[in-house]
Amino acid sequence: MTHMLMSLANGKVAVCLEGGYNLRAIAKSALAVTQTLMGEPPQRLDENLKVSATAVKDVAMVKRQQSKYWKSLFPRETIDTLNPEFMPERLHDVLREWQSKVLFDQFQMLPLPIHRTGLTNPHSKSFDYQVIAT
């Protein structure tokens, strides 16, 4: 994750070490982050690593609770009942909008509207910035 963040932020990353309960996990994590910050490639994940059902359930529960405060998190089962005004933005939509701005600044390219009918969510931004032209 540190490697991915560094590529997104052009290498400008600040790291803060928080407390924790598993000293072995914290030590391994701190070492991996430090090695990545020093330019070493990240280690590959163990292909035989299995995620437990309990972990998946716990993450879903945390996500559900945090979705009350972070609009980018939302429980999938309640997506249709959310108020469209508070619909979270998807990362690919945010990136596409940023790319469009960069292309406008460099080449004066503008997004063209796409006529769309029959969408399940008319408030979706996923069709915005799909077609860009000079």
Structure description:
- The chain has helices at residues 2-8, 23-37, 53-66, 91-107; strands at 110-112, 131-133.
- The chain is mainly alpha-helical.
- The chain has three domains: 1-49, no CATH class; 50-85, no CATH class; 91-133, no CATH class.
Report a brief summary of the structure.
With 134 residues, the protein is mostly helical. The chain folds into three domains: 1-49, no CATH class; 50-85, no CATH class; 91-133, no CATH class. The protein is 40% helix and 4% strand.
Top keywords for this entry?
4% strand; single chain; mainly alpha; 134 residues; 3 domains
Q: Helices and strands in order, then pairings?
A:
Blueprint: H1 2-8, H2 23-37, H3 53-66, H4 91-107, E1 110-112, E2 131-133
Antiparallel strand pairs: 1-2
